Amino acid sequence: MTFGALCEWGKRTLLAAGIEEAGLDARLLLEFCCQVGHSVLLAYPDRMAQEEQAERYRELIKKRSAHVPLAYLTGVQGFMGLDFCVNEKVLIPRQDTETLVEEVMKQLHDGFRILDLCTGSGCILLSLLHYSNGCTGTGSDISEAALEVAKENAARLGEPKARFVCSDLFENIEGTYEIIVSNPPYIRTDVIGTLMEEVRLHEPSSALDGHADGLYFYRRIVPEAKKYLCGGGMLFLEIGYDQRESVVRLMKEAGYQDVTAVQDLAGLDRVVYGCFYGGNYV
Asked: Is residue 87 part of a domain?
């Protein structure tokens, strides 16, 4: 079949399966299978795809029709202008989380030490290291499988100053840091079942579930982080759209100063951060 015919078939198939971005996903999967760019598909719609390419495309369209996320099919997701390897062991990096990275970068100075809790694919830590000078970082996650993905991404991006530790939050963490950042699980348990199929059926539930009220991990991270912050160090947290007041209150009650909430590009509360001046001065 030709590029054009395959792409049209893929679009129709995905539309019938209720995939919202059917046309875009059909095109991106075809580019992935045939290893060509968008401009080639536009310029040469009558070019014949190799049979093995067409067969692979049909397989991936079938999987996408079953609501397997596009990024898990291609194995790559863009984030902060970088490409990250992903699989079903890690959450897919989202544009919303770029707000968290951008807010940290405003406070990041050369040589800072960064701790990224619940690192997953490593996209937060590795983006911060990539766009800074002389910083070092530790990423922790309770999932060994997720850490393997993070290590692969560090190798691909050439970030030797990133180290990864299997740890239940601070359990195996040592030393102090100028920046602690986390995008922890924060979705209420009773909401998990209402999420779109791509998320509910395919992304790791342990990276989504924030327990009964979604605040379980914030209650652990906020007070414990103070032991690992340098004097004047900062804690940055991604939050759910309806969690600003609760997380701000937790941080203020724990003694953080200058606690600030930031909205994402959609105008939703997305980040809360603050300073802890009672930390360890080194």
From this structure: yes
